[in-house]
Amino acid sequence: MNLEIINDQHVLPAERETWIRDLVEFAAKKLAMPEDTEMSISLITDDKIREINREYRGKDHVTDVISFAIEDDESDLPDFEALAAELNIPRNIGDLFIAPEHVQEQAVEYEHSFDREFGYTIVHGFLHLNGYDHIEPEDEKVMIKLQEEILDSYGLKR
């Protein structure tokens, strides 16, 4: 996995970036993704994620993660996976924006460790970038089951 982590405002210590990479690599292997698949994770402040949420989703509140999948089924864009294969270039699945401060608040609220909640947030967003969603109950069952399998096998059990 070619993962770019943007932590310019140092909202998390730089050492945490290795842990993030390990978890994303682990999840990518579970999905049997090509090693050259690309994505990015931006670690941002609560204020910044609220601004993005307001501008792009019309929701004026802080959230833990926002995903921007390049291969969105609702898009009029070309089939990027096929195009990447045809041109022999890496597939880029999109971008995640994560607010670690809000993740910490949720960890306290749900009585999870920060690692468990942060891992949940990363894997949840990662699955969204890979086409999973939880809008319909049937889809939610599939996504949540896979998410829990990844987290449990990585060692982030509830």
UniProtKB/TrEMBL annotation:
InterPro entries, per the entry: MetalPrtase_cat_dom_sf_prd, YbeY, YbeY_CS
Hydrolase listed as a keyword: yes
Main location group: cytoplasm
Cofactor: Zn(2+)
Keywords: Cytoplasm, Endonuclease, Hydrolase, Metal-binding, Metalloprotease, Nuclease, Protease, Ribosome biogenesis, rRNA processing, Zinc
GO cellular component, one term: cytoplasm
Superkingdom, taxonomy of origin: Bacteria
One Gene Ontology term of the molecular function aspect: zinc ion binding
UniProt: Zn(2+) binding residues: 124, 128, 134
PROSITE patterns the record matches: UPF0054
EC number from the UniProt entry: 3.1.-.-
Gene3D superfamilies tied to this protein: Metalloproteases ('zincins'), catalytic domain
Subcellular location: Cytoplasm
Free-text comment on the cofactor: Binds 1 zinc ion.
UniProt GO BP: proteolysis; rRNA processing
Signal peptide residues on this chain, from the entry's feature table: none
Family statement drawn from the similarity comment of this UniProt entry: Belongs to the endoribonuclease YbeY family.
NCBIfam families documented for this protein: rRNA maturation RNase YbeY (TIGR00043)
HAMAP family linked to this entry: Endoribonucl_YbeY
PANTHER family: ENDORIBONUCLEASE YBEY, CHLOROPLASTIC
Biological role stated in the UniProt entry: Single strand-specific metallo-endoribonuclease involved in late-stage 70S ribosome quality control and in maturation of the 3' terminus of the 16S rRNA.
Protein name per its UniProtKB record: Endoribonuclease YbeY
